[in-house]
Amino acid sequence: xxxxxxxxxDFSNYLAVLETTRKPWHDKYYALYSSVLGGVTLDPVxxxxxxxxxxxxxxxxxxxxxxxxxxxxxxxxxxxxxLARSAEAIGLTWPAGLDDIxxxxxxxxxxxxxxxCTGRVMLARGPGSFGVSPYESPDPALYIVVYAxxxxxxxxxxxxxxxxxxxxxxxxARFATVKNCNYLPNxxxxxxxxxxxxxxxxxxxxxxxxxxGATENFGVVTGEGALLFPRMDxxxxxxTMMRVVQFARRLVESGDLAAIEFRDITEEDARAAKxxxxxxxxxxxxxxxxxxGDPVGGGKPGSVxxxxxxxxxxxxxSNHELRSAY
Length: 326
Ligand SMILES: Cc1ncc(COP(=O)(O)O)c(C=O)c1O
Known about the structure:
Layout: H1 14-19, E1 29-34, E2 39-41, H2 54-58, E3 61-68, E4 72-74, H3 76-89, H4 98-112, E5 117-124, E6 141-147, H5 153-156, E7 161-165, H6 173-176, H7 184-196, E8 200-202, E9 217-221, E10 226-229, H8 239-253, E11 259-262, H9 267-272, E12 275-280, E13 284-291, E14 294-295, H10 303-318, E15 323-325
Parallel strand pairs: 7-8, 7-13, 10-11
Antiparallel strand pairs: 1-2, 1-6, 3-5, 4-15, 5-6, 9-10, 9-12, 12-13, 13-14
The structure holds pyridoxal-5'-phosphate.
């Protein structure tokens, strides 16, 4: 007779065990879909991902995150197109196609039924083994989670963002351009920001060219009034950045900006900038007030950042073409 030190879990006690795993932060999780379970649950403790899904033990999967305001997902199709591009880059396809992922996403959002929330779609290599070969997973798996909305940065920090330069090596282009579930460098960047007591860190590659933040893109406004973003082959193509560029064209027309360029940005460019902007799904457009301890543009949020943030907020609230209702 062996001595059971560990609790033995089987069908007879499983639900009782799950009940003990309930956590306070589960209150922020509204609906969770799993293709493995073949359905959606509103109870977070019932959402379980198989440990042999290569998503879990190899980070083998891709994802995308979008925001919902007024019972509509903003710019969902741009997020799903990026998910499809990321999946293609790692040789992963959802057999029923992108329209099916879209339908399941909208249904999961409808089940959550929240006015404002965040949605995340994860397309995983799927269960199959504990090996590294993607060919050992016969079918991909899809997980969709709906959770609490984040606060746009400038709402919580009207004075602007403090930013430092990250020490985490920049991802090679092949991986930086794919929104894959292997986010360890991004995690380490966020850890730096928290440990250093700043709002964001920004990466630079080996040749001193600015890349991006942990989960956001960076741009600068030069003294001559040009809005610069990094070249798209070195960073993730942010849906927010691309939308902001469309609004920036209006500012070029009105004379508030001189030009928009995607080009290499150096630390000197950042230090000489009139404004530094941070853009992303949760934060919208944040203005940087301090870079590496020095004030940016007099230490106050500048006019370009303010205008672009305003135009983006207006678009999120009222652009019916980009709003997918649920
Ligand atoms: C590495 C990285 N860069 C940039 C972004 C910004 O992309 P988006 O504007 O689509 O949120 C994200 C978004 O999560 C990201 O993870």
